[in-house]
Specification:
The complex is a heterotrimer of chains A (799), B (83) and C (283). Chain A is of the alpha+beta class. Chain A has 27 helices and 35 strands. Chain A has a 7-stranded mixed beta sheet with strand order 12-14-11-15-13-16-17. In chain A, strands 30-32-29-33-31-34-35 form a 7-stranded mixed beta sheet, with helices on both faces. In chain A, strands 5-6-7-10-8-9 form a 6-stranded mixed beta sheet. In chain A, strand 5 and strand 6 form a beta hairpin. Chain B has a single domain, classed as Phosphoribosylformylglycinamidine synthase subunit PurS (Mth169, Chain: A), CATH 3.30.1280.10. Chain B contains 2 helices and 3 strands. Chain B starts with a strand and ends with a strand. The relative contact order of chain B is 0.35. Chain C is of the alpha/beta class. Chain C has one domain: Rossmann fold (3-Layer(aba) Sandwich), CATH 3.40.50.880. Chain C is built from 6 helices and 11 strands. In chain C, the strands form 2 sheets. Chain C has a 9-stranded mixed beta sheet, with helices on both faces. In chain C, helix 3 crosses helix 4. The chains are: A alpha+beta (799), B alpha+beta (83), C alpha/beta (283). Chains A and C meet through helix 9, helix 12, strand 19 and strand 20 of A and helix 1 and strand 6 of C.
């Protein structure tokens, strides 16, 4: 209990043999309400504190610390997503809720019958086949990772795996997308309290590898981006994919069901992780927030997983949820709220790591590796026995009631009595937002003479270079079901998506891909979001993925600042427009706001994760060229779209010509590509993204071990007259495709109505050959040289 | 009586210490004139025994049975009574 | 303690009972089970608690497998805690099992366990203290990659009798403690003994079968003499760092999309097949 001498009268210690305070809010003025919020570390605004005050005035009593902490946790941005659910005034228009107006609306309007459960549980669930569902969730764990990179990243992975267990699914694959400051950031420019990106990079990667590897869940997909704005605020997206037999899915807690807490013991770790995640990072964060970082124990979670899957298969429980932000307080509260119940909880029954925890600490602790089950009383012994057999501690800590009130007891004393409907009706925030296009000019510079060296530089640049040194530290093969691996083939090329074959008895697969283009957000968050959606989908289509579902993960700055919120609105608008147009519903999402440090806000960063179904994994297509003399096609049109491109970045520019998406044409392209792959006409396929056509083609060549020869005259372009722009433009909705001579006719017939050009062929040589618009020899360089440069980009074998 | 033992398990001379070497290299990169770095593992054990000699015997046994692998590890320990 | 192998009866494949042990942190049990089942044997994954409580008996099975994973979090040393635990609780059962000529396979963490148990290399029978170690990789860190291993056994190892000597197998590794070493001062003597007793089974090599000679990444962990797998003097216990269960089916291969004609299985199958063939024979 934090106390200052001034405010001592605000806290009245109840006469019980343990620490329990009543908070004197009944008579508190505005300043005192703010003091209380600050001193208890509950992060509530004055308006919110006033609503709490009114509530307790009606009850004619003061709240206990347990109650106020519970309210603080439940109403936090992290748990309640106030900004996404709040009202926003944007350019004379009032948006009722970003979530409902944009994200969920696309899903609702599309209403696909294959969406089993979306935006309801810890994870979204889509159908895999008649009997199985695929559960997917992607979380952010930015703030904890900035403070303690290893622990923050590891517990991020642990947390998202529990989200998957929280819908009764068996976690089968992890994905991780990470954004760091430049690894060569000058030490002297680092403000106090900010760790060097290299230190953060090593720690985060080790933490991610540690958790997935130890639990035996393959880490199969992801991305790494670098930008100065991440220097003070690393971005860590942890995703997990799970499988569940639909007939074992139980989601109906009832009155009388026993609340069973299972897994790790409860300690002070992670207390106030939630409120901490919803505040900006300051110089003091490290000192002040260190206890908020949780300690990871993947082996505990591995055991927990085994037990939970056994309980699922034996159909012993009626509901399940993970313990994440807010600990027991949120898990019990959300379960009670969801099923219209109340609950009694006895905190004495919670196994503790050490003595001396106050009741509120037990109730809100975020100790890792814990799950909460609702168990019909007659199954309790059977459930506890399963946990015992798996060496997992489990205790019955309470029971669900039907009166809509949560009563918490400790040593016989009532320490909290909270009305569930009140707890889940926080005042809605109303925020202002505006957006105006930044004034960035399109750069003017002459076409470089030596485009071979430009290509080399791009291949070695941080956002493009091989991630092999990172990916090898993740076990991407465990479970033995990774059909298409993140590092493809003997030469470890970059796959567009990973493909998992989850069932022994079926050839059906799951394609996992992502799209992320933070650079474009510097120009317009709308087109950044459109591009991320297009990229995630085309990566999925490139390997043979169909019937694609999306997940959104926003990492933004402080939403209370109208410019930050304005770009968030723009991004959400694009999410609706393009999810609807592509018929790819959102099934789950998560936002992390307040990503600001002494170095400023992070550049708006939207991650789109795409989950597709592969009807038969035997038809999966990889990105490496396969056979000399095969034809190479560029599918999709190339525009003057270099704004935010890696090419401009290399030249020191951002530019304004951000890549756009023409939804109807893009959809047509994706459909034709899907058909061509399904009909077995495509021998290799690679999406064109960072670094444009040149980089994508180089990757295909050096992964396949054959040379290529193309002519830029044959690339379908609009309004482009420069070789460098054709080579490095990052226009969306494009693929490079290898087709054998014998499939040529059929492929071209299928591509009618889609912009597509045969640009050259695979050669038996080892040279990467490009002819310019005038027919001149523009680039002629060995694929081994290109590959070596690409591989050494992130600093060779030493991370 | 209660004793507290501090056991240090380190690599025997002659064996490669990849963690130590990598750490040394990084420290040199950061500008420190580091010659070598050795990585060892420390276990602090509290245990009950009737005498210090008995406690030492028990700790010796723990090292031999579990904490060290004689193929590559050396171990050393100190035992103190806790009051 | 010396192991004396008694006569082993022939077991029909479909009746062969393979016991795959697990403990908290084991995580390659399912795919290992799948491999044996695919080849027609019975395979059961059993938590060690059930064995200690005598709900399952080691003596009732025909082969024992220690699969990959991070048993007990690999705290202290990879495999050490599980190994000491088994020696303490099931040491006699294991000795009896080996005495009956029944095979034990250890993959990755399982190999680490067998070395820590003193069951490998077991130059003079099961040793009280480990005679070798699987130390931290050099270069350090977790490494998940496909490697090539050359079969070097001259016929002693019962798992690989059907594999040609010098045949090259392609199987992935994934570990951070896989550097096989002997005590420095006895390195050469131990190697000689290993070769003499025909206990060397697999060495890391290039695609063409040339020894790695320590060069990374052909030798992915810095193992002494490129050692990837060894057996006991009787040939009935095999431990190896690579994961054959991840190279069992063709679609697990890292570049199957390049192949015009697909094999039915990957090279890892041979290890499981070898064990089952041995069970089918009588000695």
């Amino acid at each position: 209990m934090p106390r200052s001498t001034k405010s001592e009268k605000l806290y009245i210690r109840r006469n019980v043999p343990f620490e329990l305070y009543e908070i004197n809010i009944l008579n508190a003025g505005d300043a005192e309400l703010q003091t209380i919020s600050r001193e208890l570390g509950i992060g509530l605004s004055l308006d919110e504190m006033k609503v709490v005050q009114q509530h307790y005035r009606k009850l004619k009593r003061n709240p206990t610390d347990v109650e106020l902490q519970t309210i603080g946790q439940t109403w936090s941005e992290h748990c309640f997503h106030k900004t996404f659910k709040g009202k926003i005034v944007f350019e004379d228009e009032e948006i009722e809720s970003l979530f409902k107006t944009y994200i969920f609306r696309a899903t609702k309007e599309l209403e696909p019958e294959w969406c089993f459960s979306v935006f309801e549980d810890n994870a979204g669930i889509v159908l895999f086949d008649e009997n199985h569902g695929v559960a997917v969730k992607v979380e952010t764990h930015n703030h904890p990772s900035a403070i303690e990179p290893f622990g923050g990243a590891a517990t991020g992975v642990g947390g998202v795996i529990r989200d998957i267990l929280g819908v009764w699914a068996d976690p089968i694959a992890c994905t991780d997308v990470l954004c760091f400051g430049p690894l060569d950031f000058p030490h002297e420019r680092l403000p106090p309290g900010v760790k060097h990106p290299r230190y953060v990079f090593r720690g985060v990667i080790a933490g991610i590898g540690c958790y997935g590897n130890n639990m035996g869940i393959p880490t199969v997909s992801g991305a790494i981006r670098f930008d100065e704005s991440y220097t003070g605020n690393v971005v860590v997206y942890c995703g997990c994919v799970g499988m569940l037999p639909l007939d074992k899915f139980r989601r109906q807690a009832r009155k009388g069901d026993v609340i069973v807490l299972a897994g790790g013991k409860t300690g002070r770790d992670g207390i106030h992780g939630v409120t901490f995640a919803s505040a900006e990072l300051t110089e003091k964060s490290e000192e002040v927030s260190r206890p908020a970082v949780q300690i990871a124990n993947p082996i505990e979670e591995e055991k927990l997983k085994r037990a939970i899957l056994r309980i699922r298969d034996a159909e012993l429980a009626s509901a399940i949820t993970d313990l994440g932000g807010g600990g027991i307080s949120c898990a019990v509260g959300e379960t009670a709220h969801r099923f219209g119940l109340g609950a009694t909880v006895e905190l004495d029954k919670v196994p503790l790591k050490y003595a001396g925890l106050a009741p509120w600490e037990i109730y809100v602790s975020e100790s890792q590796e814990r799950m909460l089950l609702a168990v019909p009383r007659q199954n309790l012994n059977a459930v506890l026995q399963v946990f015992e057999e798996e060496d997992v501690e489990a205790s019955a800590i309470g029971v669900y009631t039907d009166d809509g009130v949560i009563r918490v007891y400790y040593r016989g004393e009532t320490v909290a009595e909270i009305d569930v409907p009140f707890l889940f009706a926080p005042p809605r925030v109303r925020r202002k937002a505006f957006w105006k296009p930044p004034r960035i000019e399109e750069p003017q510079f002459p076409e470089p003479r030596d485009l071979a060296s430009t290509l080399m530089e791009l291949l070695g640049s941080p956002n493009i270079a091989s991630r092999e040194n990172v990916i090898r530290t993740y076990d991407h093969e465990v479970k033995g079901n990774t059909v298409l691996k993140p590092l493809h083939g003997e030469l470890a090329g970059p796959s567009d998506a990973a493909v998992i074959k989850p069932l022994d008895e079926s050839w059906k697969g799951i394609a996992i891909s992502c799209g992320i283009n933070p650079n474009y957000g510097k120009i317009d968050a709308y087109w950044m979001a459109a591009s991320a959606i297009d990229e995630a989908i085309r990566n999925n289509v490139a390997v043979g993925g169909k019937r694609i579902a999306l997940l959104d993960n926003f990492t933004w700055g402080n939403p209370e600042k109208p410019d930050r919120l304005g770009s968030l609105v723009r991004a959400c608008q694009a999410c609706y427009d393009f999810a609807k147009a592509f018929e790819t519903p959102f099934i789950s999402g998560k936002d992390s706001l307040y990503n600001e440090s002494p170095l400023g806000p992070v550049t708006p960063t939207l991650l789109i994760t795409a989950i597709g179904i592969v009807e038969d994994v035997r038809s999966v297509v990889s990105m490496d060229v396969k056979t000399p003399n095969d034809l190479l096609y560029v599918v999709g049109e190339t525009f003057h779209e270099l704004g935010g491109s890696e090419y401009y970045a290399l030249k020191g520019f951002v530019g304004s010509s951000v890549p756009k998406v023409n939804a109807s044409k893009a959809k047509q392209t994706m459909r034709s590509m899907g058909e061509a792959i399904e009909n077995g006409l495509v021998k290799a396929c690679h999406d064109i993204s960072e670094g444009g056509l040149a980089v994508a083609l180089a990757e295909m060549a050096f992964t396949g071990g054959y040379g290529v020869e193309i002519s830029l005259e044959k690339v379908p372009v609009r309004g482009l007259t420069r070789n460098d722009f054709i080579l490095f433009s990052e226009s969306n909705s494009r693929f490079i495709v290898e087709v054998s001579e014998k499939s040529r006719e059929e492929f071209e017939r299928l591509m009618r109505g889609t912009v597509c050009g045969c640009v050259g062929k695979v050669t038996r040589t080892s040279s990467f050959c490009v002819y310019g618009l005038e027919g001149e020899a523009l680039i002629d360089v060995s694929i081994d040289v290109l590959r070596r440069r690409w591989k050494s980009g992130l600093g060779g074998s030493q991370l | 009586m209660m004793f507290k033992a501090r056991v240090e398990v380190s690599l025997k001379k002659g064996h490669t210490d990849p963690e130590g070497e990598t750490t040394a290299k990084l420290l040199r990169e950061l500008g420190y004139m580091v010659e070598t770095v050795g990585v060892s593992k420390v276990f602090t054990v509290t245990l009950k025994a009737n005498s210090k000699a008995e406690a030492e015997n028990l700790v010796e046994e723990m090292c031999r049975r579990l904490l060290a692998n004689p193929t590559k590890d050396d171990y050393s320990y100190t035992v103190e009574e806790v009051k | 303690m010396e192991i004396r192998v008694r006569g082993k009866p022939a077991v029909k494949r479909e009746e062969a009972r393979v016991l795959i042990m697990r403990v908290g942190g084991t995580n390659c049990d399912k795919e290992t089970q799948r491999a044996f089942q695919d080849l027609g044997a019975q395979a059961h994954v059993v938590h060690i608690n059930q064995i200690v409580k005598k709900k399952h008996m080691i003596s009732e099975c025909d082969a024992l497998v220690f699969p990959g994973g991070f048993s007990y979090g690999d705290y202290v040393r990879a495999g050490a805690i599980w190994a000491k635990w088994i020696v303490a609780k099931l040491g006699n059962e294991i000795k009896r099992f080996l005495g009956e000529g029944k095979p034990i396979l250890g993959i990755c963490n399982g190999f680490q366990v067998l070395v820590e148990m003193g069951v490998l290399p077991a130059f003079h029978g099961i040793s009280e203290f480990p005679e070798a170690a699987l130390a931290t990789n050099s270069p350090p860190g977790y490494n998940c990659r496909w490697v090539y291993i050359r079969h070097e056994n001259r016929g002693n190892c019962v798992f690989t009798q059907h594999i040609d000597r010098n045949a090259v197998l392609r199987i992935p590794v994934a570990h951070s403690e896989g550097r096989f070493i002997f005590p420095k001062e006895k390195e050469n003597a131990c190697l000689e003994k290993l070769l003499e007793g025909d206990q060397l089974v697999f060495r890391y090599c290039s695609q063409n079968g040339e020894p790695a000679e320590g060069a990374y990444p052909v030798n992915p962990n810095g193992s002494f003499y490129d050692i990837a797998g060894i057996c006991n003097p009787e040939g009935t216990v095999l431990g190896l760092m690579p994961h054959p269960e991840r190279a069992f089916y063709w679609w697990q291969l890292p570049d199957w999309t390049r192949k015009m004609v697909l094999p039915q299985y990957g090279d890892g199958k041979q290890i499981f097949e070898g064990m089952l063939r041995y069970l089918e024979k009588k000695f």
